[in-house]
Amino acid sequence: MATTYSFSRMGSFESCRLQYKYSYIDRMDTGVETIEAFMGSRVHEAFKVFYDFVKNGVVKPTDWLLAAYREYWQKNFHDGIKIVKSGYAAQDYEKKGTRCLEDYYEAYRPFNQAKVVKTEEPISFCIRDGGREYSFRGVLDRLDWNDRDKVFEIHDYKTSSSLLTQEDADSDWQLPIYQLALQSQWPEARQARLVWHYLLFNKEIRSLRTQEQLEELQKMIADRIREIEACREFPPNKSALCEWCRFQEICPLWKHPKAMEKREVNEYRQDPGVILVSKYAGLELEKRALAEKIRVIEEEQDKIEEAALEFAERENIRVIDGADHQLLVTVKDEMAAPTRKEDPEKWEKLRDVLTRESRFVEVSTINNQMLNARIRNWPIEMVDKIRNFLEKRTVKKVELRDKK
After folding, report:
1. Residue 92 region, left (φ>0) first, then alpha (ψ -120 to 50), else beta?
2. How far apart, in whole angstroms, are the C-alpha atoms of residue 16 and residue 14?
3. Quick one: 100 and 185 in the same domain?
4. 3-state DSSP assignment of residue 299
5. 258: nearest Cα among 272, 242, 278
6. Does residue 134 or residue 338 have the better pLDDT?
7. CA 162 to CA 243: how far, in whole Å?
């Protein structure tokens, strides 16, 4: 069965590949829902039922809209709701949603700006590029027909606490792909107005797309889908979004820390993992102390070496005798090439000469760190050419970090 993509699915891959695997490959359901997502869903439900009436010529009063919102909130609230921000309760978010609805109602009453066509409409369509088609689906919050301007308006409600800039809106691709879907049904959608409603800020942001931009968007999305389909490794990505992830309790980056948060102090200190980290940290502190001591010793050695060279030159000798050891002094001329950092222009010219003379490979090496960094961006055809010369190795290391 062909995979069907969505805005949220592709966003998940971009933010964390392991989260993508848990959600869309393993199809895991933890029963966890963030309070922000819950609030957003209830606001969307309230708008849908309200605008369904508007569509039929009935404008319900503010109290009716708020009552519908509270009913949806109480009906759907469950024990899996996750509140990340400390000091906040569910009621705080319920009130925040209420304020969003109140502000919006006052801003758009009497709701005659355009004619409502669809609300919370599931849409399915195809992204086409290079002779291939990729199935896509989404949910259109609201579609209006502006009879005065003779243009469709694609509306999207956002309860996010961050505000989209105009520049971001002009490059965003969620609403433009919905425009692509509409064009197959209504030719007028070639001219569509994209409208984001940032409810917490009581602010509306608008944008437009040309047909050339929509065609370019299809290519960009197709490229990302091909990247997803070619992916075979799904490592976790630690970011500020982790606290809102519903898979935190099983994620390799968070599983042990989250389990330790629930332990009593004595039980916590006796945990084998905590003991290992404490021992490792203690040894790391010893290493740092020794490293500082070594640095001081090496500085003193440098001074002695400088004095020894002066002594050998003054006395015209090559061996300096000591009680138990000797210092052998060697003086010879060597050729030194400039580094790229020291003199990039001279470095480039030197490399060009060595390359033309087929000598560059004799003075260069293959660095695995450099190779792995490059190979992630090389075309697959290039990787295939060298694949037989490479072997996959598992590198394991332990790194100590301060607990924040």
Report:
1. alpha
2. 6
3. yes
4. helix
5. 242
6. 134
7. 16
In the chain, the amino acid numbered 252 is: P
Q: In 10 A of CB 9, how many CB atoms?
A: 18
- Copy the structure tokens of residue 58: 């009935």
Whole-angstrom Cα distance, residue 273 to residue 275? 5
Q: Which residue has the higher pLDDT, 42 or 370?
A: 42
Structure tokens at 125: 């369509």
Residues 281 and 354 in one domain: no
CA 193 to chain centre: 28
Domain count along the chain: 3
The whole domain housing 347 covers: 338-364
Comparing C-alpha atoms, which of 354, 317, 325 is closest to residue 337? 354
Tell me the two tokens of residue 128: 């086409």
pTM for the full model? 0.75
Give the whole-angstrom CA distance, residue 21 versus residue 27.
Answer: 8
Residue type at 33?
E
Strand pairing report for 319-321 and 326-328: antiparallel
Pair (63, 112) in one structural domain: yes
In contact, 198 and 158? CB cutoff 8 Å = yes
Question: With contact defined as beta carbons under 8 Å apart, do 242 and 254 qualify?
Answer: yes
How many percent of the chain have pLDDT more than 90? 67
Confidence band for 17, pLDDT divided at 50, 70 and 90? very high
When pLDDT is averaged across residues 279-303 and rounded to a whole number, the result is: 94
Rg of the chain over all Cα atoms, to the nearest angstrom: 32
| 38, burial (CB in 10 Å: exposed 0-12, middle 13-18, buried 19+) | buried
Instruction: Return the residue matching tokens 């107005």.
Output: 193
Q: Are 344 and 324 within one domain?
A: no
pLDDT tens for residues 163-173? 999 999 999 98
Supply the angle between the helices 174-183 and 211-230 in degrees, to the nearest 10.
110
What is the number of H-type helices and E-type strands within the chain? Answer: 14, 10
- The per-residue DSSP string of 390-401 comes to ------------
- 358 Rama class: left (phi>0) / alpha (psi -120 to 50) / beta: left
Q: Are 52 and 121 in contact (CB under 8 A)?
A: no
Does 122 sit behind a cis peptide bond, omega within 30 degrees of 0 on the bond before it? no
Predicted confidence (pLDDT) at residue 69 exceeds the cutoff of 90: yes
Contact assessment for residue 259 and residue 251, using Cβ atoms and an 8 Å cutoff: no
Alpha-carbon span 196 to 104, nearest angstrom: 12
Residue-by-residue DSSP string for 342-367? T-HHHHHHHHHHHHHTT-GGGG----
Question: Would residue 163 count as lying in a domain?
Answer: yes
